[in-house]
Amino acid sequence: MFSEALDKKANEIIARYPVKRSALLPLLHLVQNEENQITKEGMRYVAKKVGVEMNDVFEVLTFYTMYFTEPIGTHHIQLCRTISCYLRGAEEIREHLEKRLGIKPGQRTADGRFRLSEVECLGSCCTAPMFQINFDYHENLTPEKVDQILDSLP
Amino acid sequence: MELKILTKRFGLPNSTSIETYLAHEGYQGLQKTLKEFTPDQVIDEVKKSALRGRGGAGFPTGLKWSFVPKQSPKPKYVVCNADESEPGTCKDRPLMEYDPHQLVEGMAIAGYALGSKRGYIYIRGEYMYIVPILEKAIDEARAKGYLGKNICGSDFEFDLFVHPGAGAYICGEETALLNSLEGLRGHPRIKPPFPAVAGLYGCPTVVNNVETFTAVPHIIMKGGDWYRGLGTEKSGGSKMFSVSGHVNKPGNYEVPMGYPLMQLINEECGGVWKGRKLKAVIPGGSSVYIMTAQECENATLDYEGMVKAGSSVGSGGVIVMDETTDIFETTYNLIHFYNHESCGWCTPCREGTDWLHKLFKKIHRGEGTTEDLRMIERLCPNIEGRSHCPLGEAAVWPITSAMKKFPEDFRRRVREVEPVAAD
Ligand SMILES: Cc1cc2nc3c(=O)[nH]c(=O)nc-3n(C[C@H](O)[C@H](O)[C@H](O)COP(=O)(O)O)c2cc1C
Ligand code: SF4
Ligand code: FES
Predict the structure, then answer these.
(1) How confident is the model at residue B1 (pLDDT cuts 50, 70, 90)?
(2) Which residues line ligand 2 (CB under 6 A)?
(3) Portion of chain B with pLDDT greater than 70, in percent
(4) Domains of chain A (ranges plus CATH)?
(5) What does the pLDDT look like over A72-101, one tens digit per residue?
(6) Which helix (H) or strand (E) holds A86?
(7) Chain A partners of B250 at a C-beta cutoff of 8 Å?
């Protein structure tokens, strides 16, 4: 069950649209932030809130890269691999991350602390190479800077 | 020389607050609009300014606004495209992060011109940290009477909401964006009907890029002729260019339209890094033709100038590559992108980008032959012009232009074989 506070927030979001279904993506973010993934319960809740079938929710969420139906992990490192970052050394950063974390892109560490993803351009091309950890941007990366950032994480 | 119009408030302390905005000409464009302009006069002023869409296609903004049927009994919507996902482009992000009120004001003026009461800012989900910045600006504007009912004491009503996407390049295409905003998968719609006639919920809708809206208050305040005069006859005003890649000072620079490309690279960006020579530039985000160093020499950054120089302004993402760059590898990087971002709706793009990606991968591994290059050349025209939305072309143009302009980078990666089949 989701909290009353979350339900209140959900109602607020739904009220922004003349058609409830428009709230689908924002509500999926809401339940994912709560549970670190989108569970069946999350899908059922969202479906009920916006008045569609669970199938519809599943159909939509699988289209978008930011939704996960398995635990994301505490720190989701999303390394940009696209051209501007590639030109400034994104591959070196990836190799460094792979070595340090012992995982490949698409994998999660056994303790669930880190997930590594290679993603496409994050709109940070002039401060490349870069990654996002959860929703925080980390820019102008070097292997040393990556170590500092990871060392400072809880 | 940079020309700070859209970016002029960036360095101010507390630049996101309404107090700062009001102390620096904020909401004066909206006030002037409501006092002195009819909706049609706003559209005329924007037409006069020669403002063209900054999202990539460069469509004249005033003309687009004039397509909205005024008589329609349906509600009308103003939608801001803040999906910014075109590789090499990162200009909408600072425009929202540092001066959110400028966007709010631009959208409110558009709302007045179009007879709309409601707007949405569709922002890419990865920019989640900007959502509270925009929402705070919207709340402040409501509290001070620049949004909501009876704006500035008039009978104009307009309200604004932020809508986060969830990771999909294709949702930057305006009709895919509208589907996404309706809570659907982000597949593009068939055009026509264009959104101006049947957009969000089937109602007349104007979709414009962040940067396009932010230019509007300035056009109203100082006049369309003034704005046009900053740039060239057909490309009015100033524009943000995101310069990335192999330059000494990558960054966002606002310059007048028509500014020389090489001056931007050499003066604003401090030249090509490490004392190296220029090899190539992709000047308008990844979806435009690549340019050789020679083509860059006399290129000017306006819509006509860039076409003359062999490419286009696109979204203004200038990707600079030095002499050590392997153009096969950068093209491989991009086909990976387009293959990943193909929404899968139509066969030429879904299958074509997949096939192209596999061929590039094979060549990258050192297993390619001249036949593979020929296959790539045969595949491209089967995607271009045959796909449901422009992503198909966007995937092909970087490849065909790179193979034509830098053939050596491709040829030396493959083994010569006898052609196996005739075309
Ligand atoms: C595949 C694709 C991706 C696009 N991505 C964006 C984008 O991220 N931001 C944007 O403003 N326009 C994007 N566009 C252009 C939009 O479809 C549309 O032309 C634009 O939002 C109109 O606004 P403007 O006239 O102010 O540029 C994209 C187009 C295509 C075909
Ligand atoms: S061209 Fe590509 S992105 Fe566009 S509709 Fe077809 S499959 Fe989707
Ligand atoms: S290419 Fe990496 S952020 Fe744009």
Answers:
(1) confident
(2) B 170, 188, 342-346, 349-350, 387-389, 391-392
(3) 99
(4) 4-63 (1.10.10.1590), 75-152 (3.40.30.10)
(5) 999 999 999 999 999 999 999 999 999 999
(6) helix A83-87
(7) 125-128
The C-alpha of B211 sits at a distance from chain A's nearest C-alpha, in angstroms, of 14
**A23 interaction partners in chain B (CB closer than 8 Å):** 183
Tell me the ipTM for this assembly. 0.98
- Which candidate, B30, B183, B230, B179, places its Cα nearest to that of B110? B30
Rounded-to-integer distance, Cα B203 and Cα B191, Å: 14
Which candidate from B87, B161, B185 shows the least CB-CB separation from A63?
B185
Does A125 sit in the ligand 3 pocket, CB within 6 Å?
A: yes
Distance between CA atoms of residues B44 and B228, nearest Å: 13
pLDDT at B421: 65
The SS3 of residue B276 is coil
Q: Which residues contact A86 (CB under 8 A, 6 or more apart)?
A: B329, B330, B333
pLDDT in tens, B333-362: 999 999 999 999 999 999 999 999 999 999
Predicted TM-score of the model (pTM) = 0.97
What is the B172 CA–ligand 2 centroid distance (Å)?
Answer: 12
